[in-house]
Amino acid sequence: SQTIHQWPATLVQPVGSPLSLECTVEGTSNPNLYWYRQAAGRGLQLLFYSVGIGQISSEVPQNLSASRPQDRQFILSSKKLLLSDSGFYLCAWSGTISSGNTIYFGEGSWLTVV
Amino acid sequence: ILNVEQSPQSLHVQEGDSTNFTCSFPSSNFYALHWYRWETAKSPEALFVMTLNGDEKKKGRISATLNTKEGYSYLYIKGSQPEDSATYLCAFMDSSYKLIFGSGTRLLVRP
Fold first, then answer.
1. Using the beta-carbon criterion (under 8 Å), do B97 and A106 form an inter-chain contact?
2. Tens digit of pLDDT for each residue in A35-51?
3. What is the pLDDT of residue B27?
4. CB distance from A49 to chain B under 8 Å?
5. Is the separation of the CB atoms in B54 and B64 below 8 Å?
6. pLDDT at residue B81 above 90?
7. CA distances, B94 to each of A105, B51, B68 (Å)
8. How does pLDDT run across B41-56, given as a tens digit for each residue?
């Protein structure tokens, strides 16, 4: 069966420090991968998505970046965090319509920038 | 810019009431429409994935319909229960697999 894990679950980082959130998927190949953020009082904002290794689409201009070094690994990074980067980050994956196309989410990562 | 809109933003109903929400999405480049039940700071729980115009899906007291030509989907809850209280999200997936969520409808069911 397929599983998705993201870590760390909670993170408190000072302004200006770097960030790395990691997400891995097991039990499937060539998944579509997504990073979302829920800022305080808002819905889920799409940050990045990827349909294959090295293929990253960025939705919102900001100081975050994403990489997909392996088929089932998706990393969200920042060189210098801002206070506004605080929020709840969710990684997700989906297959194709023939596999049901359901979106599966990771457990989430709480980031507090202080 | 893809725009996925949900209405109402929030809804308070009495236990036993039936209710429905609307999701509006672009009618071009449609691939799939998803509905999720979500409690803040948790992973969303999948309810339905719909791909065909005219699709109707049902799961217990919850059902959904899809109109891809006019770009809307309805989610219905029959006989609401307090445990149905949550935010209901719809998400539009286009042909490039971009998945955009609406801002959600927050449902509160009073006992």
1. no
2. 999 876 678 899 999 99
3. 86
4. yes
5. no
6. yes
7. 19, 11, 12
8. 788 899 999 999 999 9
